[in-house]
Amino acid sequence: MVLFGKHSIGRIGRIGRIGRIGRIGRIGRIGRIGRIGRIGRIFGWISDANPAKV
């Protein structure tokens, strides 16, 4: 229970604790929304910079 307590959202994703919504993406720690996929850290800033394009 302690593990889930610390990582409320991190339990869904591996590194979702750093990323806001990294539950869908494995590495959403750099990208705010790693919903794009495994490389959320690369596409994360792109979607954040160009939300209209995504």
SSE inventory with pairings:
Layout lengths: L1 H5 L33 H10 L5
Order of helices and strands: HH
- The secondary structure category is mainly alpha
Beta-strand residue fraction: under 5%
Stretches with pLDDT under 50, minimum 5 residues? 1-54
Task: Indicate the mean pLDDT.
Answer: 46
Beta-strand segment tally: 0
Gap between N and C termini, in Å? 37 Å
* Total count of helical runs of at least 4 residues: 2
Give Rg in angstroms: 11 Å
What kind of sheet is the major sheet? none
Work out the count of structural domains. Answer: 1
Helix content: 25-40%
Q: Tell me the overall shape.
A: elongated
Please give a structural write-up.
The chain is an all-alpha fold and 54 residues long. It has one domain. Helix content is 28%, strand content 0%. The chain contains two helices and no strands. The protein starts with a helix and ends in a 5-residue tail after the last helix.
Quick overview of this protein structure:
With 54 residues, the chain is mostly helical. It has 2 helices and no strands. The N and C termini lie far apart (37 Å).
Which key terms come to mind for this protein?
54 residues; mainly alpha; 2 helices; elongated; disordered N terminus; disordered C terminus
